[in-house]
Amino acid sequence: MEERVNLRRIIGYFSGVNFIIGVIIGSGIFMSPGGVLRCSQLNVGMSLVIWTACGIVSMLGALCFAELGTTFQSSGGEYFYIKRGLGSLPAFIFLWTGFLFTGPAIMTLNALMFSEHVIQPFFPGCHAPEAIKKSAAIAVILIVGIINCLNTKWIVVIQSIFSVLKMAVLATIAISGIVHLALGKTQNLQRAFDGDLPNVSQFGEAFFQGMFAYGGWNILNFTVEEIKEPSKNIPRTVFTSITIVIVFYLLVNISYLTVLSPREIVSSAAVSVTWADRTIPTASWVIPISVAISIFGSLNGGMFMLGRLNYAGSKQGHLPSIISMLHVNYLTPAPAMIISIIISTIFVIPSEILSLTNYFTFCTWLLVGLTTVSLIVLRFREPKLHRPYKSFIFVSFSGLSSNRLCRGGSGCVLSDCSNRTGSENGIFLCFAIYAKQHDCLLPPHILQAAYTTF
């Protein structure tokens, strides 16, 4: 009798908290404050409200995902839930969209931002050559991919170390802000709600900018098979980690405002670097390094998540069976990781940061919305299903409404219609692959409904 090979359960409560924090805190908190403030019409009070609202929405979404993760204890995250709730076709579209487009795009985006912060300091006063930055991006993808192939324990240890370093940097900025407030530097926080209020479109875009900084809260749903006592640890880790992130994000934004005016924040390409130049000019080089560390942690977590998604899809028969194989010694989904590395590396060659951010945002939020719909469908279709953790039903509907707002915000960002068309083309390619794999023709009314929806 053959012994079945499974993933090892090595992620506990504290390592789970570190993992979520390590993935969420990437470049967003260092880059997004200017975008949120700009879209809030320089209204300081409204920008802080939006940061808080984004945190609450992330918490609501994470609690919905916690219910799904404790109910269906299988790696694969949204793919598995959509397949269970909505059927094979939506799950297939989600999987292949993530496999070919959104997953590699996120990896490439993080790698390019990492290389930007690592390489640019060596070229003061001018732009670093694109070839060097892209070579560095490819190198970091390979390094992270090799680490993910070799040992899951290394990934958890690296993620924990980087999470501590990130929190140390954010704590430094937050404590500095508290000190400045104690010294009476509150001029930018007085009459915080004075000024113009954003319209619906601007509010949606500001909300989207903030949600970008909170992205990654669903990481544990892709690693359920590697979590110790998932029924207990998933809800606890989710609540703890997102609460910590919300508090630190608010303190960091307040710290920025004690030193910089709203207009200075909006005009800065990297507000954290401008803040460091103003407060610690002799050690301002620490911030670009800290941003690079944050991005590396997100890149590591993203590679970990993408490999598990491909692994789970292959086990369900929606990807080639070789991708579901595990490394015989390390019990890691090495073939799935290698495929992710190859596709992400190819994406680096023609891509740039802005186009990647715009190109795949709409599609990403659409797929998150499908997962929320799956939760609601399963609540009514399978009411007697054993659920170790159960969120309030209004949380699910709130998450779905917030998802619609985020997609509206992403639509504001996508000023170039060709970007959204690219996302649509990617989804229709998935329809074609599904029809070919299942040897069937999709009826015209399904394709028309899909076009209308997407």
UniProtKB/TrEMBL annotation:
Protein name according to UniProt: Solute carrier family 7 member 13
UniProt keyword annotation of Phosphoprotein present: no
Membrane topology: Multi-pass membrane protein
Subcellular location: Apical cell membrane
GO cellular component: a single term: apical plasma membrane
Family: Belongs to the amino acid-polyamine-organocation (APC) superfamily.
Keywords for the protein's UniProt record, in alphabetical order: Cell membrane, Disulfide bond, Membrane, Transmembrane, Transmembrane helix, Transport
GO molecular function: L-amino acid transmembrane transporter activity
Transmembrane segments: 12-36, 48-69, 89-114, 135-155, 161-183, 238-259, 285-307, 328-350, 356-378
Top-rank taxon, per record: Eukaryota
Pfam families, alphabetized: AA_permease_2 (PF13520)
